[in-house]
Amino acid sequence: MKTFIQQEAEPDPIVINAIPKKGGEFFYALKQIKGDFVRVIPSSWYEIRFIQSLEKGYNLFAPWNGDGVIVMTKYLPR
């Protein structure tokens, strides 16, 4: 079974970066990250569980615009 039928290569994407502030608040800003990434849109429970297992801000990011999530290519299941 092929995972992430809806996927698109996105090298060096611009993502939302959360910066912690005092009192448990966050400041959100855009940031360009370097490397090979893929924008995926989950369509099954298996894909959602896989995304939940990734570490936010390391190999999983929220895109600055559009749908889906940005995942580091080397972490996608084959």
Summarize, please:
This protein is mainly beta.
Characterize the structure shown.
By secondary structure, this protein is mostly beta strands. It has one domain (6-75). It is built from one helix and six strands. It has one helix at 45-53; strands at residues 6-9, 14-20, 26-32, 37-41, 60-63, 69-72. The mean pLDDT is 92.
Q: Average pLDDT, to the nearest integer?
A: 92
Which structural class do the helices and strands define?
mainly beta
Give me the Rg, rounded: 13 Å
Overall shape: it is: globular
Distance between the termini: 10 Å
SSE ordering: EEEEHEE
Secondary structure layout plus pairing:
Layout: E1 6-9, E2 14-20, E3 26-32, E4 37-41, H1 45-53, E5 60-63, E6 69-72
Antiparallel strand pairs: 1-4, 2-3, 2-5, 4-6, 5-6
Descriptive labels:
single chain; 78 residues; 12% helix
